[in-house]
Amino acid sequence: MQETSRQKQGPQGQKPDAQRGRGTHPRSHCICSAGCIAAAGLIPPDATLYFDVVLLDVWNKADTVQVSTLLRPPHCPRMVQDSDFVRYHYNGTLLDGTAFDTSYSSGGTYDTYVGSGWLIKGMDQGLLGMCPGERRKIIIPPFLAYGEKGYGTVIPAHASLVFHVLLIDVHNPKDTVQLETLELPPGCVRRAVAGDFMRYHYNGSLMDGTLFDSSYSRNHTYNTYVGQGYIIPGMDQGLQGACVGERRRITIPPHLAYGENGTGDKIPGSAVLVFDVHVIDFHNPADPVEVTTLSRPPEPCNETAKPGDFVRYHYNCSLLDGTRLFSSHDYEVPQEATLGANKVIEGLDEGLQGMCVGERRQLVVPPHLAHGESGARGVPGSAVLLFEVELVSREEGLPAGYLFVWHEDPPANLFEDLDLNKDGEVPPEEFSTFIKAQVSEGKGRLMPGQDPEKIIGDMFQNQDRNQDGKITAEELKLKSDEDQERVHEEL
What we know:
The chain has seven helices and 22 strands. By secondary structure, it is α+β, with helices and mostly antiparallel strands. The strands form five sheets. Strands 3, 4, 5, 6, 7 and 8 form a six-stranded antiparallel sheet that branches. Strands 9, 10, 11, 12, 13 and 14 form a six-stranded antiparallel sheet that branches. Strands 15, 16, 17, 18, 19 and 20 form a six-stranded antiparallel sheet that branches.
């Protein structure tokens, strides 16, 4: 008798089941008349004897293991071979239907190697070729089971055994991660590598289809680095090489998952795991903004948008899986921003720079140049954003720190020109009137994209150094003169 450590606890250790096609349990009547040998003191000579017979078992030395497939799943990822490790449930009975053991009462599957001497010979043979999820009836003659000795008090000598088996999963210690592409979007130009950060949805199940976890139930992607040891080794391997939008099935043997101990109450020890994954997006922390020019205006473009410029642009923003987020077309007016002024996310600001008026671009913005790990209203954390932008107009900006500049040299007698009533001081009204006249006459320009009244008010406050509500000749200084004074002070 061959036993595993579990078999030593009872007949469930050796999994033989030898039910045969021959019937058992029929009662027959046997009559023995003259010629029967009398039993001394019990049967008189020439007595006719009647026997009621119940056939409990029958087998022949030429018998082999009999296998009947009761249910075979439509999808069979692999079949049991010698040296495989299997997990299965079983009910074991004698040929007359008497139950002697069941795995269902133990709270777990029976786990063992096949073809390695851990099982009785008949069960080793009967499990070969099974698919996960398959149900079989296996009948094992006694010489391939427990033979002349039987097993304990539950399996008599010379007993044929019958097992009803449900195979839960199968793997081999030499197995690697198995990949199956379920859907590959066209135009995959980049595949995930170790070090990338990925957002993906998944359904996780055991090999028999039992679901143990799903990101969809939480309405949130699973976000992690790939190939950095943050997830089980099999998933670390299985996600590499995936494209954005790809759906793939990742089958992971237990030695690349949760091993012999399993985890929690849903993943048993030595379980093969099957993940159906949908890759939403991925990026690398070193990624820059990816810029693709969709169209350019037909006329030559000599000037492009740069930091400080005030621009108007239309945009559509979505996630990489096509989920629409925002669009300026919803408001029927272009978006406005001063480039380099931290008015828009950094990646969009970079992507708008260098554009010609009328140009259209596609921008792929990684999260560290967008809304980061926390996301924003309507934007998931760590999301890569896809923009389609069109530059509608551009106004040249002013040098850093300037609110107003003259196109040519400023007036030679600036204070006298500002002092409209020639009383030796310039109140806000005179200051505003003068600046607006300079702009309307094309002699100077204010910082674009801002409220002119506010800018002029800020300019006045800058010149009214004692904050008494008026500017004197002593207070008035051009910014270029102030900057020059600072240089001398530093020197």
